[in-house]
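User: Teach me something about this protein's shape.
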Amino acid sequence: MNGAPWAGRRLHFIGVGGAGMSGLAVLAHELGAEVTGSEVSETPYSGQLRELGIEPGMDQDAAKVPDGAEVVISTAIPAENPELAVARERGATVLHRADLLGEVSRLGRCIAVAGTHGKTTTAAMIAHALAGCGRDPAFYLGAKLRAGTQAGTPSRAHPGGHRHPGGHRQAGGRTAGWGDGGWVVVETDESDRSFLKLARDVAVVTNIELDHHSTYRSLGELTGAFDEFAEPAQSRVVAAEGGRPPGDGETVSFGIGAGDLSAEELELAPLGSRFEVAGATVELSVPGRHNVLNALAALAACRLAGLEPAEAGPALATFAGTARRFEDRGRTAGGTRVFDDYAHHPTEVRASLAAARALGGKRLIACFQPHLYSRTRLLAREFGEALAAADVVLVMDIYPSRERAQDFPGVTGWLAAAATADAAGGRPVYWTPCFDDAERLLRERLTEGDVLVTIGAGDVDKLVDRLATGAAEQVS
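Assistant: First, the predicted structure itself:
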């Protein structure tokens, strides 16, 4: 994969500031393409673009589309977007981001990571372990790597995929990067079935639980899509309790006390764990049983890439995690510890609160922002049961993402708040629909020794910026 295979190619990304689009823009740049893009506002991913000299212009204007450029869009870009309209008028090639990611996946041997929960962390662990063992992978993730995590990322002095010999780069703050080691680690997206467009030499399925209700009408339909994802792969990684998917080639299962790669002698600590697997000792600095399972899936994928747990396992000791996955965000001025988590399904909420409870704070306070009307309508009761594990719960209104309120009459975050109150056994539950409501109540109620977790896949993390006084590295 040396050189610049996309040299001479011109790509313009509409909505370049999103997590997925910005990562693709980074990869395109490092593969040698000339990259431009537009956005409507600043995003958490703008920085990684500017580091590479890609300016995500803060407006969308037909004049911004370069002549001769292929135009890359996501499902969120409407047909009336002025840049998309002029591209079609010119007869330019218009690519959905999933199609471009499919091209990326075919530039090497692809480890494609899918699953309802844990795929971001699992994919990041795979890339980190491969890099730590000198395999220099390319990677594409749905969240930024935290400082200290390594992956195949060219230094700024060597753009376009040309690299110094001799090892990995620190990849903190990045969602994507190219490497010359031959492996491409990709976090996939089942929400719109786009994961079926990828090449997959190794197909990893972390777990399957019904989600994305606007796409899948039943668990059986969702399971069928995952089977279709796994079947053509040369080899597969699956959870031990999930059964074996169709397809030829090797399948490696994983689990705690079960599977081909089984975690034994597990010791859980508040912010990490230690376990034995296949004769190797693995120590993690990310908390919870769910991260043990993520690590086992990553080690299984590494085994299929030629790295046994004895080599890949120690590399995971320095894995620092990804942004918004139970991320330590410091403390409030009054001494409350603050964590932020991307959990947006009841199972994930339950795991996040279990990890927070293990910290041993005086009170556990959860501030939850539901994500999607369709998910909230169908899973309100389950969200309430999961959130009831906290001592105090605040529920905000729904982050709509790609959905419209008018298509879901009567569906608001109040459904999750009411369900939580029903399950909370008299513990306080507050309906705080907007940021100002939540901030005001938290400032009134938080005290030293409390643990606050902001939860949701929308923009609830903005609340942390209002409350926390310092980054995790500055807090003892």
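Now, about its shape. The chain is about 30% helix and 20% strand. The longest helix spans residues 289-304. If you'd like, I can walk through any region in more detail.
User: That's plenty for now, thanks!
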